[in-house]
Amino acid sequence: MKLKLHTKIFVGIVLGVLAGVFLKDLTPSFITPFGQIFMRLLKLLVIPVVFTSVTLGIISIGDTKHLGSISAKAFAYFITTGFIATSIGLILANTIKPGAGSVLTTNGLHTIVEKAPPISELFITIAPQNIFESLSKGEILPVIIFAILLGVALISIGDKGKPIVSFFEAAFAAIMKITDWIISLTPIGVFALSANTVATLGISSLLSVVTYFFTVILGLFIHAAFVLPLILKIFGNYSPVALFRNLLPALAVAGPTASSSAALPLTMECLNKGVGVPNKITSFVVSVGTTIDMNGTALYQGVAVMFIAQMYGIHLDFFHQLIIVLTAFLASAGAAAVPGAGLVTMVIILNAVGVPIEGLSLILPVDRILDSCRTPVNLWSNSCGAVIVANLEGEKLQPETEKPQILHPELKEKSCDLKKAMPYDSERELEVVGKGRDFFKH
């Protein structure tokens, strides 16, 4: 029987812990190098994924049929809730400090956070000066800004930009294939990283992950149970309980699959039929939101980066935490369609603030479980956004009701002669329904 990737990852973690305990002396020479190679391969993906995916994302979103008041309201919602989610994660991480008191060291790690420059430097450094230099140095924010500008420019020149768009589509497809190959190596990478962590720090180092795990869960609960329902009630004028009840089928799919995309068709059906949101709104808000509105992921990333920094004893001040907020939103939006996107975007954010990416080995043991927790939050946020945009657009939500039955209800309860069960003229009724068929369709 072929094992699923997350099962292989779990097996790799268990074997890695055992190897770190029983093969402690052999781990640095024979096992750790595989983890280092895996990390280098992950870093290889960062710039190509961000550059191509953000550019293509802007192009598809900027299509003229998607422009207008609906998109403006949707993007305002996406940006606001994304920043709120990341901020909740950072506040909890600063308050609970899940990684405090660790003995991890940055000796031998080349990626060390630097002293924070003035806040004005944030806006200067994100402006691309030399895009090729930024690409070669792995400077994430300038690359994202350039990709956004390039996407907007390609939209504005219309047909002239089609050859470049086709190039980016082909490049993105090729990068996704490479991503598939590298992600398939995750069990081996996790095995080596777990073994190295346990061998160098002892098995007690994994206990800090428990506090980190519950910090993320608490943040997701606060955002999903209090923040989003409050926003929905104020701006959407709709009951959060009623929306949750209508979305249960889609949420039931999103959790186990850990994929908003897998639940997308069911989400749109629940909103269209159960809630009554017009298709012109769900087709844009929900489909685009599946890629951009990643509230649960952004919150998780905020906690994860702070946790890893605390484990290494690295202090991230307001400047660096502001970069986390910006990068978490932009990176999640740009790479959300990537298989294993959480792993890739975490590398992006860690690089942006100068925290060693080797710390990823600490959170991988619980990443798959948290993935199944944050995905329903992403879906819940997208759905709240669709209802809010519909309300702000002045749409009256009208859930679809069951079509009137042609046959008499008695036919459902007992078996009897058709003529006795239909004392009225059935042929006449069929004729009337036939004339009104167009009405019922609409």
Give the rounded overall mean pLDDT.
Answer: 77
- Measured distance between first and last alpha carbons: 48 Å
Q: Give the strand tally.
A: 0
Which H/E pattern describes the elements? HHHHHHHHHHHHHHHHHHHH
Helix content: over 70%
Principal-axes geometry comes out as: globular
- The CATH topology of the largest domain turns out to be Proton glutamate symport protein
Strand content: under 5%
What value does the Rg take, in angstroms?
A: 26 Å
> So what's the CATH class of the largest domain?
Mainly Alpha
Question: How many structural domains in the coordinates?
Answer: 2
Query: What structural class do helix, strand and pairing data support?
Result: mainly alpha
* Biggest sheet overview: none
- Please tally the helical runs, counting DSSP H or I stretches of 4 or more residues: 20
Which architecture of the largest domain would the CATH scheme give at its second level?
A: Orthogonal Bundle
Low-confidence stretches: 108-117, 335-339, 402-442
Protein architecture, described:
The chain has 442 residues and is mainly α. The chain has 2 domains: 5-392, Proton glutamate symport protein (Orthogonal Bundle); 410-441, no CATH class. Helix content is 74%, strand content 0%. It has 20 helices and no strands. The two termini are 48 Å apart.
Descriptive terms for the model:
single chain, 442 residues, mainly alpha, Proton glutamate symport protein, 2 domains, 20 helices, globular
